Amino acid sequence: MKRTGTRFRPRLAANHYDAIVIGSGIGGLTTAALLSKLGKRVCVLEQHYTAGGYTHSYEREGYEWDVGVHYIGEVHKPWSMIRRVFDVISDGKLEWAPMDAHYDRIVIGEQSYDYVAGRDEFKAEMKRHFPAEAVAIDRYVELLSEVSARVPRFFAGQALPRSLGMLYARLRRLWLPAYFFKSTREVLEELTSNQELIGVLTAQWGDYGLPPAQAAFVMHAMVAKHYITGGNYPVGGAIRISETIIPLIEAAGGNVFTYAGVDKILVEDGRAVGVRLHKDGFEIRAPQIVSCAGLVPTYTRLLEQQVAEAHGLLAPLKQVELSAATLCLYAGFKGSAAELGLPKTNYWVYPSHDHDHNVSSFESGQNPAMPLIYISFPSAKDPSWDAHYPHKATVEIVAPTLPQWFAPWKGSTWGKRGADYEAFKAQLTEQLLETLYRHQPQLRGALDFCELATPLSTEWFQWNEQGEIYGIDHTVQRFDQHWIHSQTPIKGLYLTGADTVTAGVGGALMAGVLTATRMLGWRGYKVGKLLKDWKPAMPAGEAAQVAG
């Protein structure tokens, strides 16, 4: 079984760390790696058997799946910020492979639309379907670029001291356009009245978990701009992310421990001073503590209630909602991706173009049709797959679900939930597979193994509240919560990850950058310098030519 990180043993812990990071998701690993690059000794504590959070991979029955990395944008551009951060924290060892030019296929009823890599190519494809909407399509793509250019200013307060950062968040309405504070539907209906076009343009809403009337436009625009020049996949699978980052942390004297669930953050005299582990109550201390466990779990479970209340951390949580819960089917098929004709394209399948209605009718029970089914073909995306798993292929199918469906088994132990639970999962599995076979009929009869993860699985492995996969919801109201900051009111305690910036690998990655910057105080400029000065190591052949 593939695993990253070191299984925790008390004797392996160092006597001194400069910082402790709770959780090894990409936000936590990024924070730890940047601090390590700047000479800090960091201890990362992960409750799971492997590091990586949603960027980890797992094996079962001779197959391997990535639990959260389906595609990443902009890393094919060496000058992009996300690529630069990945290069710095992996010492340039993380490689990327492009997906097909048609990276996302949107299927609405019987009609399909492709998202094509490239701004001009994307616009041309949309205009082919909606020739009367050329002006709206052009303006929409312009808006994506405008938002992208201003996003650093939108989140800049996260790198400032908490009091200044909160003031910055209150004042940013003065210099940011109004569309930063509107819903996606509000903004798009100012461009066009064509509801079918709006449905197509917002068809990636599953990447952030909210349909257009609920989702903040800034969130939608960041995702759409992130992918508009194409999707990419890590060569070797998502496990390569933690595999390439961890050695850098260890080289600085730090550790990334697994089986190291944290019970409580220790707070003494108003300052975070360490953590207590579940295992034997073992304590590890450091002057700075970072939680990548999520905003709500950190404030409600990792801190003693009286500590959280004394610092005013619990009441503001009423202003945010938890994001969607999902089902994820991991399926293995006999035959390689090439033999089975699998694409390097994601499928987004919808019952109609009205995503808001699809979601509301599903949640109310009026319509049992899943409002979205997402299909990914990871073995087709990874050029190194066949060398490790010849004549095998994998598929992942993700769909929204309702936590209340699984209430009868709430609090039960993973793998021991009984026959009724397994029967319910089998019913859901069949529904998801039928959708897959409708779009890839050649796979029928080739299924070798499948396993369904439910919100209970997410709660068990990711320590979430109700199986949510994106932390707190990405509504307009969420982005107006000035108190959400990388630096908490408790001295020495910081937050990182999706709830600090946004969900998604890119959002959590940038949260790691901002948190590391804030932790360093006035020396935070060194993080920016580290990223600016990064130069990839020259390949041996090129070095020889230069020397000659």
Structure description:
Pfam families: NAD_binding_8 (PF13450). Keywords: FAD, Flavoprotein, Membrane, NAD, NADP, Signal, Transmembrane, Transmembrane helix. This is NAD(P)/FAD-dependent oxidoreductase. InterPro entries: FAD/NAD-bd_sf, Retinol_saturase. Helix content is 36%, strand content 19%. The protein is α/β, with parallel strands linked by helices and 548 residues long. It has three domains: 6-95 and 235-320 and 473-533, FAD/NAD(P)-binding domain (3-Layer(bba) Sandwich); 117-158 and 169-229, no CATH class; 324-462. The strands form five sheets. It has a seven-stranded mixed beta sheet with strand order 9-8-17-18-19-16-20. The radius of gyration is 23 Å and the shape is globular.
**Domain count:** 3
> In CATH, what is the class of the largest domain?
Alpha Beta
Order of strands across the biggest sheet?
9-8-17-18-19-16-20
Secondary structure: number of strands: 21
CATH superfamily of the largest domain: FAD/NAD(P)-binding domain
Topology (SSEs and partners):
Layout lengths: L5 E2 L11 E4 L3 H12 L4 E4 L11 E4 L2 E4 L5 E2 L7 H10 L5 E3 L3 E7 L2 E6 L2 H11 L4 H22 L6 H10 L12 H6 L5 H7 L15 H11 L3 E4 L4 H13 L3 E4 L3 E7 L2 E7 L5 E3 L2 E4 L3 H8 L2 H6 L14 E10 L2 H4 L5 E5 L4 H10 L8 E4 L1 H4 L3 H4 L3 E10 L17 H21 L7 E7 L1 H8 L30 E3 L9 H15 L5 H9 L6 H8 L1
Parallel strand pairs: 1-11, 2-3, 2-15, 3-11, 8-17, 15-21
Antiparallel strand pairs: 4-5, 6-10, 7-10, 8-9, 12-13, 13-14, 16-19, 16-20, 17-18, 18-19
Organism: Aquipseudomonas alcaligenes
Pfam families: NAD_binding_8
Protein name: NAD(P)/FAD-dependent oxidoreductase
